[in-house]
Amino acid sequence: MKLLLALVLNAGLLLLLWHWLRPRLTEAGIGCWLLPLLGLKLLAWAVASWRPSGDSRHMQLFGNALSQQLWESPAAWLHTALGNEFHFHDWHVVFHGFSNTFFMYKVVSVLNLGGAGSLWLSGLYTSLFCFVASWELARTVRRLFPDTPTGAVLVGFLLWPSVLFWTAGLTKESVLVGSGAAVVALVLQWLYGSEKLRPWQWLGLLALAALHFEARFFFAGLLLAALAGLVAIRTGQWLGGLRHRWGQVLLLALLLAGGVYVVGQVSPVFTMNRFTSRLLTNYRELYAKSAGRPRIEYPALRPTGESLLAHTPVAIGAALVRPWPWEGGGALYLVAGLENLALLAVLLWSVGQTLRGRAGRLPFALVLVLLLYCILLAALLGLSSPNLGTLNRYRVALLPYLLWLALQHDGAARWLRRLGM
């Protein structure tokens, strides 16, 4: 029964993938890049599955246990899927709050209906999900904003080395980045497209937003809040206001301040004192675990809002450019450092083009909310993740959007279009 179901599901998925691929292969402009980028993603998936991380093996192991529960007692599995505890035979696991690790156990248990407990197949499903969602975002941008380079999205989501590495195989990042790209694509279609979203697209948007939130709720909360700000700005524009950029900036600032206040009132976890204390605790724990390795140091950091603000500029810089190539001494640190130098060059190029009046043609409101998301998440990561390896992985949630913004200016547009992007 299990084998038959797996064969049927995989045959159906292959047909869906072929149905999705066929019209896009001949699409003007970016169709020629579809197979090369898909091949690159599959190569990264094969490498990631051949040498899986401990985190991937852990998720597959517990996911297989949940799958066994699904087959033996579907009602018990449903109770597990809707809760924060897993009790089955000798397995006893209890989580508190929004655990993305426990959520991934549940995801793997569903993927196992087709994957039959194989980490290779689970990783293939998540890799293809991320690829398809990223490609659809690129197509949406090309359709809605034809004067901007689609290649900026392709580079950020499908070509940049660390993004490609961390979103291949069975990883939380593949689900996080893929669901985020899909949500952004649907929201842009809603706000800037000429056609209304159909009912099934609205249902898909809600499901993908829930998936994105569960994959890593704090990161997702920032992106969803940024998109809510974009909705507010577009609503103001539809009503005949907010034509000037400073009005959009002011509205977004008011929404940000109001949102922080409301969230703090709703949950004590997000009050300033609790937030700063928890952030400092995370920093100290990871700092201690990183002994003997390159790490970010804030000797004067204190659990106060003033101290966090004072350290924020350095934290943002550290999140984007650490490690340097000469830090660490190992090959992985060297590769990460060289990538950071490339990122720094891209960002400086973008700043230079912007100062010369060549910032690109994306709508200002969209640039504003995505840039705010990148800055806030970079500050959060830089302050709470002194371990450079952890930082390199976590910042994958913001890098695609930052690269999209940094490569949409006129100078980059010329180079990307020469490459057929």
UniProtKB/TrEMBL annotation:
Task: Classify the source by domain of life.
Answer: Bacteria
Keywords in UniProt for this one?
Membrane, Transmembrane, Transmembrane helix
User: Which positions, given as ranges, span the membrane?
Assistant: 119-138, 150-169, 175-193, 205-233, 245-264, 331-352, 364-384
Q: Does the keyword Oxidoreductase apply?
A: no
UniProt keyword Electron transport, yes or no? no
Q: What is this protein called?
A: Glycosyltransferase RgtA/B/C/D-like domain-containing protein
